[in-house]
Amino acid sequence: MAGLCAAARARELGAEPVVLEKGSRPGGSMLLSSCVVWRYRTFEDFRAECPRGDEELQRVVFDGFDEALEWLVSFGPEVVWEDTPNPRTTGKRFEPRSLTEVLVRAAGDVRTGQGPGTVPGTWPIVLATGGFAVRYARDHGLLVRCNPWSEGDGLAFARERGAETAGDLDEFYGRAMPAPPARIGEEDYVRLSQLWDGEARVVNEHGEEFFPGPPAWHESDLAQAIARQPGGTAWFIVPAGLRDDPRVVAAREAGGTVVEEDGQLRLHVAAAVTHTQGGIAVDSQARVKGVDGLFAAGADVGGISTGGYSSGLAAALVMGRVAAESAAK
Ligand SMILES: Cc1cc2nc3c(=O)[nH]c(=O)nc-3n(C[C@H](O)[C@H](O)[C@H](O)COP(=O)(O)OP(=O)(O)OC[C@H]3O[C@@H](n4cnc5c(N)ncnc54)[C@H](O)[C@@H]3O)c2cc1C
Q1: What is the pTM of this model?
Q2: Residue 84: CB within 6 Å of ligand 1?
């Protein structure tokens, strides 16, 4: 998302950017997402939800959001929701393939299959590799719930040149998903998410309750708590009367473990990583601190949502545009 937005904006400003995409297709995690691009309705709410985030960067994302969203709409992607159903947020939901298509067209020169070894000698460079969710999941024995290419190449590139990190490198945004042996393809990441809005009692493999109180509305706090349990797994316990609930049916159909006993259903879940929240330290112009000519956007940037959750797509959109504007200067 961030790379395509940066390139589209840079082209608008008269530059001739090239997008080097490591994957076999453009769109990254945006293409797999629910594609709701949103902000909190008030800045105070953003601060309250992400209390340890960088206030200056939060300001940039919040203040730049409305204009950036209008800009996105101007490319003509299919809009699925004109606004969000959550009264605390505002934004739009797009059809992800359509959004990817219009952004690729606007970005112009997008080359797929370009690994970290193909970084050009020509600067400025905007890093937009989507954070390091894949590496984080592998290192911690967790499930991946994002594109398969975001291994932290942007962060490594910046650090090799002396960049600092920002935010908590151990924090991620994620979901509880049916645990193996469930088979989960990319197309199932949204459908198979086990969001129970506090309805499920949660215990670890030893039967111990480890999560105090109901989860936050995004439930990423629960996913992170599960990640810290033995095996990165847990059991969600709900009344047996919910056996035909779409979440239970979907988990069972995917081959997940659902046990019915004593009037209860026990669903085996595992923590899955969507994107990392810590990353490269940038200033309000998306300049990588300490490295001239290097910019970063999207999940490569650390510290925007520390301690909570805000729209990753919104951060990618706004910071991608800011990075392009700074780089064009
Ligand atoms: C199932 C799911 C649902 C989601 N729903 C929402 C939602 O509704 N709203 C929301 O705000 N967010 C949502 N997200 C999160 C959102 O998709 C991400 O926050 C967002 O895509 C991050 O943007 P990005 O540009 O940083 O990363 P991406 O969109 O993932 O793009 C990063 C790109 O960098 C490429 N790359 C990696 N390494 C290299 C390299 N070395 N060289 C070249 N290219 C490289 C990757 O292949 C990828 O194409 C969801 C994510 C998933 C998976």
Answers
A1: 0.97
A2: no
